C-alpha cells in the first residue's frame, strides 16, 4: 500500500528576463510505501530538492500531481513534516517552544504539549537543553531539535532535505545513526534527499538515483541490508557492492552535469 | 591598532568621557580665554548658572514637560497606526502595492513645510505640534517596518508552514516575532528624529516648550540659555535612547545572542 504517490510530477521554472525556461525536473513517478525509508541521491542541481519541496507543498508542480493517502497535495501541511538543510529553528523560541510550535498550532493543551516535547527532547538526546535558544546550540544539536520538532507533530511522512549537509563528517555519521534508530522505533515513512552516497545507502531500504538536470529517476535500488543497522554495516562487502553500483551511476551523472555547465 | 579588535569596557567608557572633557575644555578656553565675544557664545560657567536660573526661577521645567509630552504624544500616536500598517504591508503584497507608492512619496515631503498648513487647520495649540510630530514620524516608520517584516527569512516561514501554521499563524508567530527587535530599533531611531521636529514646531507659534525658550533667548541675545536648551534636548535624547536600548535587551534577549 502506498502512502505517497508521485505521479508524472515535473517542474519547469520560468526564464528570467526573457531567458528560456529551465526544465528542472522531468515528469517523475515514485510510489512510497508505508514505512519506506527512501533516499533520493543525485548530483547538485538535479531537481531532487525541487521534488521534495513539491511533496511538501512548498512548490507547485508544472505537470502531474502528488497524492498522500489518495488525496492530492495542494499546499504545505502538518501531515508532511520537513527538516531543511539550513537551520530553521525559530531563534526567538527555546528548544522546547520550537518543538511545541506545531502542537500549539493544533491547539493542543499545554500539559500535553510539554509531555510530547519532553519525550522527543529525550529521544534526540537533548535533555537539559530545553530552555536553550537555537543560537546557543551547535549545528548538529540544532538539526536534532529540528528533527524532534518535525517528529513531535506526528506527520504521516517525514521529508528531509539534506538535513546533515552542513555538518562535519563525524557529527553527520552520528546524526545518521540517530535518525535510523528513531525510524526503527517509530517506523515513520521517510523521504530523504542527499548527495552523500554512504548516507544514502546506510539508512535507506530503497535508494533512488537521480540523473543530472533535467532530473529524472535514473536507477532505483532496493538496499537489502538487514535492520537494525549498526554503523559497522558500512564496512561489510554487501555495502561496498551497493556503493560501487551507486557510485558508478552518480559519477556518470556528475560528469554529464559538468559537461553541461561547460557548454 | 588592529582593525576590529575589541577593547575593554573600562577603556571604552574612559575614551567616551574623554571626548566630553576635551569638548568642554576647548569651549571653556575659547570663551573664558576671551577668544570669542560673549554675545556670540557664552562660556560654560555662565551657561550652567543661567540654566539653573531658568529651572529654578523661570519655570523651564514646565517647558521641558510640554516638549516631552509633544514628542511622546505625537510619536506614540504615529507608532500605534504605523506599526500595524507596516506589518500588514510587509506581510501582504497587495496591501504593500496599495500604500507603498504613496508612503514613499509622502516620506519625502518635509514635515516642517507643513507647519503653515497645520497652523491654518489646527491653530497654534497642541494639536498642531502633535500633528507635525505625527507627520514626521509616521511615514518613515511605516516604510521601515514594512521592509523589515518583508525581509523575514523565507526558510523560517516555510518551516512554519510545514509545521501546520495557517496564513494568520505565519504573520502572528513568525513575521511579527522575527522582526520585533528590528521594529523596536526603528522606533528608537525615529523617536530621535521626532525630537528635531518638535523643536521646529516650537520655534513657530508656541507659547511654551524648549523650542519657544530658545527663540525667546535669541531675542535677548542670551546664548547661554540657547545652549542650555540645546544641551537639555541632548540629555533627554540620550536618556530615552539608553532606556530604549535597555528595554530592547530585556525584551529581545535572543536577538543579541
Mind sketching the topology for me?
The complex is a heterodimer of chains A (263) and B (257).
Chain A: E1 2-13, E2 22-33, E3 37-41, H1 48-56, E4 63-68, E5 71-72, E6 80-83, H2 95-105, H3 110-123, H4 139-152, E7 157-161, H5 169-186, E8 189-194, H6 197-203, E9 206-210, E10 217-222, H7 237-262
Parallel strand pairs in A: 3-8, 3-9, 6-7, 7-8
Antiparallel strand pairs in A: 1-2, 1-4, 4-5, 9-10
Helix pairs in contact in A: 2-3, 2-4, 3-4, 6-7
Chain B: H1 9-32, H2 44-57, H3 60-91, H4 93-107, H5 115-122, H6 126-150, H7 154-162, H8 167-203, H9 210-219, H10 223-251
Helix pairs in contact in B: 2-10, 3-4, 3-6, 3-8, 3-9, 4-6, 5-6, 6-8, 7-8, 8-9, 8-10, 9-10
What does this molecule look like?
The complex is a heterodimer of chains A (263) and B (257). Helices cover 38% and strands 24% of the residues of chain A. Chain A is built from seven helices and ten strands. In chain A, α2 (95-105) crosses α3 and α6 packs across α7. The radius of gyration of chain A is 19 Å and the shape is globular. The relative contact order of chain A is 0.17. The mean pLDDT of chain A is 91. With 257 residues, chain B is mostly helical. Chain B has a single domain (27-33, 40-256), classed as MetI-like fold (Orthogonal Bundle), CATH 1.10.3720.10. Chain B is built from ten helices and no strands. Chain B starts with 8 loop residues before the first helix and ends in a 6-residue tail after the last helix. The model of chain B has no long low-confidence stretch (mean pLDDT 92). Classes of the chains: A alpha/beta (263), B mainly alpha (257). The interface between A and B is medium-sized, with 28 and 21 residues.
Amino acid at each position: 500500500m502506498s502512502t505517497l504517490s508521485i505521479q508524472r510530477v515535473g517542474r519547469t521554472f520560468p526564464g528570467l528576463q526573457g531567458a528560456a525556461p529551465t526544465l528542472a525536473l522531468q515528469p517523475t513517478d515514485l510510489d512510497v510505501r508505508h514505512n519506506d525509508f527512501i533516499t533520493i541521491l543525485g548530483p547538485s542541481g538535479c531537481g531532487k530538492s525541487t521534488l521534495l519541496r513539491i511533496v511538501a507543498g512548498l512548490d507547485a508542480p508544472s505537470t502531474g500531481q502528488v497524492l498522500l493517502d489518495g488525496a492530492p497535495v495542494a499546499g504545505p501541511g502538518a501531515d508532511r513534516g520537513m527538516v531543511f538543510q539550513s537551520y530553521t529553528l525559530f531563534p526567538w523560541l527555546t528548544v522546547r517552544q520550537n518543538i511545541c510550535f506545531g502542537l500549539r498550532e493544533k491547539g493542543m493543551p499545554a500539559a500535553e504539549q510539554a509531555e510530547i516535547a519532553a519525550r522527543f527532547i529525550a529521544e534526540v538526546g537533548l535533555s537539559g537543553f530545553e530552555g536553550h535558544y537555537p543560537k546557543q546550540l551547535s549545528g548538529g544539536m540544532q538539526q536534532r531539535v529540528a528533527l524532534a520538532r518535525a517528529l513531535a507533530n506526528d506527520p504521516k511522512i517525514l521529508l528531509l532535505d539534506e538535513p546533515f549537509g552542513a555538518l562535519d563528517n563525524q557529527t553527520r555519521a552520528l546524526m545518521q545513526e540517530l535518525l535510523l534508530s528513531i525510524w526503527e522505533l517509530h517506523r515513520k515513512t521517510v523521504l530523504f534527499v542527499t548527495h552523500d552516497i554512504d548516507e544514502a545507502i546506510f539508512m535507506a531500504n530503497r535508494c533512488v538515483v537521480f540523473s543530472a538536470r533535467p532530473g529524472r529517476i535514473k536507477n532505483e535500488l532496493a538496499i537489502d541490508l538487514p535492520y537494525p543497522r549498526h554503523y559497522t554495516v558500512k564496512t561489510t562487502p554487501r555495502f561496498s557492492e551497493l556503493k560501487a553500483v551507486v557510485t558508478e551511476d552518480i559519477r556518470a551523472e556528475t560528469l554529464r552535469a559538468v559537461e553541461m555547465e561547460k557548454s | 591598532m588592529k582593525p576590529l579588535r575589541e577593547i575593554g569596557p573600562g577603556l571604552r567608557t574612559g575614551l567616551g568621557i574623554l571626548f566630553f572633557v576635551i569638548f568642554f575644555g576647548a569651549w571653556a578656553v575659547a570663551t573664558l580665554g576671551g577668544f570669542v565675544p560673549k554675545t556670540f557664545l557664552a562660556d560654560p560657567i555662565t551657561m550652567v548658572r543661567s540654566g539653573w536660573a531658568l529651572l529654578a526661577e523661570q519655570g523651564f521645567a514646565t517647558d521641558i514637560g510640554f516638549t516631552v509630552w509633544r514628542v511622546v504624544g505625537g510619536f506614540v500616536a504615529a507608532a500605534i497606526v504605523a506599526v500595524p500598517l507596516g506589518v500588514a504591508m510587509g506581510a501582504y503584497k497587495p496591501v504593500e502595492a496599495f500604500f507603498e507608492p504613496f508612503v514613499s512619496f509622502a516620506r519625502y515631503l518635509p514635515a516642517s513645510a507643513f507647519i503653515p498648513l497645520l497652523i491654518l487647520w489646527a491653530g497654534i495649540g497642541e494639536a498642531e505640534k502633535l500633528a507635525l510630530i505625527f507627520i514626521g514620524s509616521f511615514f518613515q516608520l511605516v516604510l521601515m517596518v514594512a521592509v523589515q517584516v518583508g525581509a523575514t527569512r523565507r526558510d523560517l516561514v516555510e518551516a512554519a508552514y510545514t509545521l501546520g501554521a495557517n496564513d494568520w499563524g505565519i504573520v502572528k508567530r513568525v513575521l511579527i516575532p522575527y522582526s520585533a527587535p528590528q521594529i523596536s530599533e526603528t522606533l528608537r531611531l525615529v523617536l530621535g528624529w521626532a525630537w528635531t521636529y518638535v523643536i521646529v514646531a516650537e520655534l513657530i507659534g508656541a507659547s511654551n516648550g524648549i523650542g519657544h525658550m530658545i527663540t525667546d533667548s535669541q531675542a535677548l541675545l542670551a546664548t547661554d540659555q540657547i545652549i542650555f536648551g540645546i544641551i537639555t534636548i541632548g540629555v533627554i535624547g540620550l536618556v530615552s535612547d539608553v532606556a530604549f536600548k535597555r528595554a530592547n535587551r530585556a525584551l529581545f534577549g535572543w536577538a543579541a545572542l
